[in-house]
Amino acid sequence: MNDSPPFFDAMMECLKHEQAKSPRASVAPEVLDQFYNEAAKASAPPAPPQPAAPEIPSAPEKPIEKSPAFAPIPKPVFQRHQQITPCPLNELSLDELRLMTLTCRNCELHQRRNNVVFGEGNPQAKLMFIGEGPGMDEDEQGRPFVGAAGQLLTKMINAMQFSREEVYIANIVKCRPPNNRVPLPDEANACLPYLERQIEVIQPEVIVLLGATPLQYILGLTGIMRRRGQWGEYKGIKVMPAYHPAFLLRRPEAKRDVWSDLQEVMKLFGKTYRR
Ligand code: URA
């Protein structure tokens, strides 16, 4: 026989339904509050029967004791966790990770963002590009490298005989730093776990680092001028540091260097430059 109150049955059905949809589905806090309040009431002892009122009340010799019916409700049998800890990132798919970043407030950059720029491309990409952080156009559109530097990056990708859809493009930070300044270490470090998980899921064969900021946070190195064109390694993945396309827009003469670095990457994929 099932003695549980109908509310619990309904709640259990609701929880089972949510879990069937996704093992990690969360339940709205208001629903949980209602659940725990109901649990608290249900676990309170039943009120004892009230004695019949005497016909002629006599003056009480001592103060009337509080009826146990008004005793404080005992602690609920179901203890609610104070804080619902998020799932560890290393269990999340790309889609789940993206959803998580949409509500991220791990650093100050969330305050001014119009959009989180998660990254985009082929989730099974062999080649991945990592830039610094979204600029104004990227913040407006929620997509990486769509402004002037992005158009140049697209040309670089095509010159390597890849399409934008074939590769994956992300940044060190997913929210725009004010006035396009370099992300602060706190901001970069707060955002890095998301990028690390993206790399872990995508498992590219090669990562191209665009400029000094990804060089610093992915390889832990400074000096893009002297490091560009030299293969590095990140968790067993080959890494090629190269100039950032925004730098190439300011210094077109550096395109020769970047092209030589990108050709190293092409060789690794068995692609040769055809004029
Ligand atoms: N610069 C970057 O580093 N990333 C972008 O997404 C756009 C410009």
Mean pLDDT: 82
SSE string, helix = H, strand = E?
A: HHHEEHHEHEHHEEHH
Adjacency order of strands in the biggest sheet: 1-3-2-4-6-5
CATH architecture of the domain at 116-268: 3-Layer(aba) Sandwich
Structural class category: alpha/beta
Distance between the termini: 81 Å
Beta-sheet strand percentage? Answer: 5-15%
Number of helices in the DSSP assignment? 10
Apparent shape: globular
Task: Estimate the helix proportion, in percent.
Answer: 25-40%
CATH H-level superfamily title of the domain at 116-268: Uracil-DNA glycosylase-like domain
Radius of gyration: 30 Å
CATH topology of the domain at 116-268: Uracil-DNA Glycosylase, subunit E
Number of strands: 6
In short:
This protein is of the alpha/beta class and 275 residues long. It has helices at 6-21, 29-42, 94-102, 136-141, 148-159, 185-202, 212-219, 224-227, 245-250, 255-268; strands spanning 120-121, 127-131, 168-171, 206-210, 232-234, 237-242. 39% of the residues lie in helices and 9% in strands.
Any overview of this molecule?
With 275 residues, the protein is an alpha/beta fold. 39% of the residues lie in helices and 9% in strands. Strands 1-3-2-4-6-5 form a six-stranded mixed β-sheet, with helices on both faces. It is globular and about 45 Å long. The model is unreliable at 1-11, 17-32 and 74-85 (pLDDT under 50). The chain binds uracil.
